[in-house]
Amino acid sequence: AQRVTQPEKLLSVFKGAPVELKCNYSYSGSPELFWYVQYSRQRLQLLLRHISRESIKGFTADLNKGETSFHLKKPFAQEEDSAMYYCALLTGANNLFFGTGTRLTVIP
Amino acid sequence: DAGVIQSPRHEVTEMGQEVTLRCKPISGHDYLFWYRQTMMRGLELLIYFNNNVPIDDSGMPEDRFSAKMPNASFSTLKIQPSEPRDSAVYFCASSFADRSAQHFGDGTRLSIL
To answer: Which residues, in sequence order, are CB contacts of B23 under 8 Å at separation 6+?
Structure first.
């Protein structure tokens, strides 16, 4: 069965510090992974997807199949990064499985 | 483009009542998804449609839940009868083509008393 695990419900970092939001997955097929973000009073929106291999708002995420991880990283956190972050796994059946989310707070 | 539109934004009703949540997907999108978000379980896929046809409803919790998509621009999620444990935020999302990014609505916050 597929599963997405985000071990941290809450994460606080100081402005300018590096941030890493952890995501581990379990899936027997070829995984396709995403990070979604929900800023305060805004809609849940796609942040990045692993197949794009891009940096969005300074965030990157690398798929590590050996460790079955897709951690989200940013070298220098900004206050505007404070939000709820969801890791998601898309299965072959086009089902998007979300983790339970991590609320990131960047302390000024 | 207003994006995915959901109504109502908030719904408070007594248990046993019928609840209908509505969703208008982004024009041109051929996939529509219904999710439920709770503190305990996070975001869960309930059902999704492709070209107005339900493809996978395995996430629908029980027979009290039903979803329809009579046309490409409208979908409903109905709960009858509602129970307090149905209280959650319900999201609708749509996407174009398989495996593309999903666009979410603002959600409906449902409280069953």
So the answer is: B4, B5, B6, B32, B34, B74, B75, B76, B77, B92, B105
Interface test with B, best of A23, A34, A42, A98 (most B CBs within 10 A): A98
Dihedral sign, Cα of residue A13, residue A19, residue A24, residue A25:
positive
Question: CA A94: distance to chain centroid?
Answer: 19
DSSP secondary structure of A58-80? TBEE--BTTTTB--EEESS--GG
Distance from CA of B13 to the nearest CA of A (A): 24
Return the residue in A33, A95, A102 with the most chain B beta carbons within 10 A, the one to mutate for interface testing: A95
Determine whether the interchain pair B33/A86 forms a contact, defined as Cβ–Cβ distance below 8 Å: no
Enclosing H/E stretch for A24: strand A24-26
Chain A interface includes B14 (CB < 8 A): no
**B47-89 residue pLDDT tens:** 999 999 999 898 898 899 999 999 999 999 999 999 999 999 9
* One-letter amino acid of A88: A
Please, which residues have CB within 8 angstroms of residue B91's CB and are 6 or more apart in sequence? A44, B6, B34, B35, B36, B37, B43, B104, B105, B107, B108
Task: Using DSSP, state whether B10 is helix, strand or coil.
Answer: strand
Q: How many residues does chain B have?
A: 113
Q: Which of A46, A86, A94 sits opposite B99 (nearest CB)?
A: A94
Using alpha carbons only, what angle is made at residue A71 by residues A106 and B103, rounded to the nearest 5 degrees?
Answer: 80
Say what the pLDDT of residue B1 is. 67
